Amino acid sequence: MSIRNQKGLAAIELTLILPFLLLIVFATAEFGRMLYQYNALNHLTRDALRYAVHDVVDGDTGIVTNDTISLISARSRNLLFYGQNSTDTEVLPGLSSATVSIVPHNSNFVTITVSYDWQPIFFDSMPSFVSTDSFDLTFPLVVNYTMRAL
Question: Which residues contact 126 (CB under 8 A, 6 or more apart)?
Answer without folding.
Answer: 134, 135, 137
